[in-house]
Write a structure and sequence with these properties.
Number of helices: 9
Number of domains: 3
CATH class of the largest domain: Alpha Beta
Shape: elongated
Structural class: alpha+beta
Number of strands: 4
CATH architecture of the largest domain: 2-Layer Sandwich
Helix content: 40-55%
Radius of gyration: 32 Å
Largest sheet: 4 strands, mixed
Order of helices and strands: HHHHHHEEEHEHH
Distance between the termini: 89 Å
Length: 205
């Protein structure tokens, strides 16, 4: 306002106008002075936006802080990351939490024959299996793995869109073919229905 009045009436000096409005002249000159661009802050915001977009807009402040530290060597507090995201209008859109669904109903439980003896002395004595889920674009997929406990080596695996017995049986069949159809193998797993179902029991047989 002072600057406008000074431009409109050349007879009024900036000093007189500052005195008139009770404004300290140093404060006035600081206000009209062009502030330099914080290049490092601009770079940081650009990096945060890149990480956010690469995560399909799901990364929150905690994730962004971890990625900045681990991949770029930049240390940032969660508080500052949150403030920067708020100023940039970045709102985390988290995917829904995975809910594990058992696809098979007909099943039975089995005795624990392995009894924690996880160190066989030869290959193809004990195999073990497990299923995990993996986040992919648009949802989840499921991975079943068969491991030979002798060398802790993966001998079979399968990927499917449902954690059912078809998934686990497919991984078992791959292991069976890969290891040239061995006999007398003990298969150990948890009591999930995809391992205790009739379909998987038939595959084992």
């Amino acid at each position: 306002m002072i600057k406008k009045l000074a431009e409109q009436d050349k007879r009024l000096s900036k000093k007189k106008l500052c005195d008139l409005f009770d404004v300290v002249r140093s404060s006035y000159y600081y206000g009209v002075k062009t502030k330099p661009i914080d290049v490092e802050r601009v770079k940081l915001q650009s990096l945060i936006r890149q990480i956010f977009n690469d995560s399909k807009q799901s990364a929150g402040a905690r994730t962004i802080v971890a990625i900045l530290a681990n991949e770029y060597g930049i240390k940032l507090t969660r508080y500052l990351a949150t403030k920067l995201m708020e100023r940039m209008g970045l709102i985390s859109c988290q995917l829904k939490t995975h809910k594990y669904k058992h696809a098979d109903e007909a099943h039975r439980t089995y005795d624990n024959l392995l009894d924690r003896n996880f160190n066989p002395d030869a290959p193809n004595q004990v195999w073990t299996g497990d299923v995990t889920y993996i986040r992919i674009k648009g949802g989840w997929c499921y991975l079943a793995v068969v491991l030979d406990l002798f060398a802790r080596r993966v001998v079979g695996f399968s990927v499917f869109d449902s954690p059912n017995s078809t998934l686990t049986a497919s991984a078992l069949k791959m292991a069976y073919q890969t290891r040239l159809k061995p006999s007398g193998v003990l298969f150990h797993s948890d009591q999930g229905t995809h391992y205790t179902s009739k379909e998987f029991a038939d595959a084992i047989a």
